[in-house]
Amino acid sequence: MNENLARPRLVMAVNSAIAVGFLQGQLQFFQDKGFDVTVLCPERRKDEWEVAQPEGIPMIQVPMARVIAPLQDLVSLWRLWRTLRGLSPAVTNVGTPKAGLLGGFAAWLNRVPCRFYTLHGLRFETTKGFRRRLLISAERLACRFAHRVICVSQSVRERAIACGLADSERTFVFGSGSCNGVNASHFAATPETMTRAAELRRQLGIPPQAPVALFVGRFTCDKGVPELMEAFSKLLDRFPELRLLLVGCFEDGDPLPASTRRALEAHPQVIFAGAVPNTAPYYAMADVLVLPSHREGLPTVVLEAQAAGKPVVGACATGIVDVISDGETGLLFPVGDVPALAEAIARLLTDKSLAHNLGLAGQEQVKHKFQQQKIWDELYRAYLAVLHKQEPLPSLMPYTEKSRSFVAGSNK
C-alpha cells in the first residue's frame, strides 16, 4: 500500500477560527482512526468567539478574507496551494464559503485523491443581483472541485440541487444532518451547570424571577436581530420583567442598522454576555431560545438549547426547519414576521406546560438523531469509500444554457 494511505493525512480547512468549534471531538476521532490530521484556518480575530484548540492537532494559520477581496484571495490561494503541496494529504475536507472555494481549488490543483466540501449553508440566499450570481457561481465551483459534497441538512441539500450547485449523486446528508452532531451531555442540566447559571444570573443583574429570552450567535441582519429587538420591545407591555440575553458579538460583514444597535445598547433590559467560551450555563438560565435567522445550514444553537431541555422559537428558514417541527420540537414563525415572532415567544412564556413538553421533545430528538459518534462513523466510511475508489473529479465544463437561465431566474 502507498505510504500516504498507510497513515493517510487528513486536512480540514475553514475560513474562520470559530469554525474550528464545528469540529470539536471529530479531529481527535480521526486521529485515533489512523489519520494524521491538520487544520488550516486564519488567525482568530479579536471579535470572534474563543475556541479551544484541539489537543494534539496541528493548526496552520492561513489568512483568508471573509469578504470578496480578489488580491487577498489570490495570496490565500497561493498559500493554500503551497501548504497542501507540502502536506501531501490523502483527504481534504473544506468548509465555509471562502475556504470551500480556495481550499477546494488548491486541493484540486494538487490532485488530492479524496476531496470533500462541507456545505454549511447557502450564503447567497439573502443576497440579490450581481452579488447573488457571484456567490452562486463560487459555490458551484467549490462543489465541482470536490468528489463529494456534504450538506449539513436536507433542506440545504434540496436547495443546493435546485440551484444547480451539484447533482444529487454527489451530495448527501449524514443521518438527520449536522457536520459534527452535538455532545448532548455537555448541555445537560447538571448541578454544576445550574449553580453556574445562578451565579451568572446574579452577575448579569437579572432578577431571580425575570423571564429570559436567549439569542446565541452573530449580531447581524441575516440572523434576524433587528426583528428580535422589535419583538422584544412589543413583549415588554405583557412581560415587563423580560430580559433579552445576547450571547455573541457584533460583526462588520453584515452590520445591524445603526438604529437597531443603538436601541440594543441603550436598553436596560438587553444583556450582553459577549462571545463566551462555554454556552451551557446560558442555556440553563434561559426560558426560551430564539433564532429569527433568515438562513441557516443546520443551527447548532438550536440543537444545543434542545439538548439543555429548553423550548425554542425559530424562523421558517433553510436549516431551521430541519430541527424544529412546529408544535412538536419547537415553534416556527414566518421569516421576518415580527408580530408572529413576538406571539411565539409570548406563548412559551405563558404556557409553561407547552414549553416543558417542547423542551423534552427537543431533548429526545437531539439524543436520538444527532449523536456525534454516528456522524463521525458515517464520515469515516465516506472518506474510505472515495479514497479506495480513487474517483476522478468530473470535468469542469462550462455552464449550460439551462443552468445560466436558472441562475438568472433565481434572481428575480
Explain this structure:
- There is one protein chain.
- With 412 residues, the chain is an alpha/beta fold.
- The chain folds into two domains: 3-181 and 372-409, Glycogen Phosphorylase B (Rossmann fold), CATH 3.40.50; 184-369, Glycogen Phosphorylase B (Rossmann fold, 3-Layer(aba) Sandwich), CATH 3.40.50.
- It is built from 15 helices and 13 strands.
- The chain has helices at residues 3-6, 26-32, 70-87, 97-109, 129-144, 154-162, 191-203, 225-235, 258-266, 280-285, 300-307, 338-350, 352-369, 372-389, 401-409; strands at residues 9-13, 36-41, 59-61, 91-95, 114-119, 148-151, 171-172, 212-219, 243-250, 270-274, 288-291, 312-315, 331-333.
- The strands form two sheets. The chain has a seven-stranded parallel beta sheet with strand order 3-2-1-4-5-6-7, sandwiched between helices. The protein has a six-stranded parallel beta sheet with strand order 10-9-8-11-12-13, with helices on both faces.
- β6 (148-151), α6 (154-162) and β7 (171-172) form a beta-alpha-beta unit.
- The longest helix is centred in the N-terminal third of the chain and has 18 residues, at 70-87.
- It is globular.
- The termini are far apart.
